Amino acid sequence: MPSGVTVQAAATGSPPVAASLKNASVRFGSFTAIENLTLDVEDGAFYTILGPSGCGKSTMLRLVSDLIPAATGEVSIFGKSTEEARLAREFAFVFQDATLLPWRTAIQNVQLPLEIGRKRGVKIPVSDKSPSELLDLVGLSGREDALPHELSGGMRQRVAIARALVCKPKLLLMDEPFGALDEMTRDHLNMQLLKIWQETGVTILFVTHSIPEAVFLGQKVLMLAAHPGRLREVVEIDLPYPREIKLRDTPEFTRHAAHLRELLETC
Ligand SMILES: Nc1ncnc2c1ncn2[C@@H]1O[C@H](COP(=O)(O)OP(=O)(O)OP(=O)(O)O)[C@@H](O)[C@H]1O
Prior knowledge:
By secondary structure, this protein is α/β, with parallel strands linked by helices. The chain folds into two domains: 1-90 and 197-267, 3-Layer(aba) Sandwich (Rossmann fold); 93-168, no CATH class. The protein has helices at 3-12, 57-64, 82-87, 106-119, 131-137, 153-165, 183-200, 211-217, 251-265; strands spanning 17-28, 31-42, 46-50, 72-77, 80-81, 91-94, 171-175, 203-207, 220-225, 230-236. A six-stranded mixed β-sheet has the order 6-7-8-3-9-10, sandwiched between helices. Strands 2-1-4-5 form a four-stranded antiparallel β-sheet. Helix 4 runs parallel beside helix 6 (153-165) and helix 5 (131-137) crosses helix 6. The two termini are 29 Å apart. 38% of the residues are buried. The structure holds adenosine-5'-triphosphate. Residues 28, 31, 33, 51, 53-59, 229 line the site of adenosine-5'-triphosphate. Pfam families: ABC_tran. Residues 19-247 form the ABC transporter domain. This is ABC transporter ATP-binding protein. Belongs to the ABC transporter superfamily.
């Protein structure tokens, strides 16, 4: 865990909250996709989100990111409404597809949110790191001038992560960002993401279908159940950081994974 979080939590008694959901429900017409979700995500935390297909994992991220409204209940981000938080660039989204502009180089894609902000004349937060340093942080130094079609899928996803970090978000929402990648690339990016989390202190909400990925990354795993989508259990992963890939071969890791598999079967 980034050291700042521990210090701040100790000083105030309870950690500041990055995202808060209180009895939040989402409906699509008469269909209830999420029902009465209540949850506080501590500032600086890394939560992974698991659950059966269609249980509302993506819907939950879309709710938090102001893409869809709550039918009932409240959602706040660092004490602001989701709309205020979106306008203040408090959060950034990384999707399964990197969605880079094909005619712009890697560094130009990373710069894009800053350019859009400038064109709209809005004051937006800017990362302490330059776009080039952000590409370095995601392991892409030397590839600044490459076009998306010249990069592998994993590299494109790293550009998308650097782009997400350029407005210095306090909350990073990641919807299966590594789901389409081969296992070795995914392992590598998992390690890199933990490094980014520890260096920046950003809060992360990360949706995955992979139990090992959920255990490896998260301090807590949110297990959602389906029909309707709801919070089934919050599972604490008490494995120390920094985490190395070989952690996956330990009995503690296997125990967490087995527990989550059992839970998933009953969701
Ligand atoms: N725009 C929409 N209109 C109607 N129904 C929707 C809409 N978006 C999502 N749903 C429904 O809401 C439910 C939750 O969808 P969501 O995509 O959040 O699930 P998920 O857990 O992310 O699924 P998966 O693991 O398969 O990606 C599903 O039944 C889906 O069909």
